[in-house]
Amino acid sequence: MSQPTFTLDDLKRILLEGSGAPEGGGLDGDAQDVLDTEFSDIGYDSLALLETASRIEREYGIDLDESVIGDASTPRAFIDAVGDHLVAPAA
């Protein structure tokens, strides 16, 4: 069985579903630029990230630490944190 992955496209989809932001919502453009741009600079606040984390937990069956939302200030950091939880062995 293959290990689930979490990509920029997954993050975009879940952010857009949860935030009700217009299509793109600041995440369009060159992936390299978007990955390292602060969420606040692309229009997402802590409430949008909390909703996103909640949706990810439900969809992927994982528990994200509260620090994920506080520490992951860019899409790259958020994707990496989710990826770490996906590969961590179940306790």
Automatic annotation (TrEMBL):
InterPro entries: ACP-like_sf, PKS_PP-bd, PP-bd_ACP, Ppantetheine_attach_site. Residues 5-86 form the Carrier domain. Coiled coil: none annotated. This is Acyl carrier protein. The keyword Phosphoprotein applies. Keywords: Phosphopantetheine, Phosphoprotein.
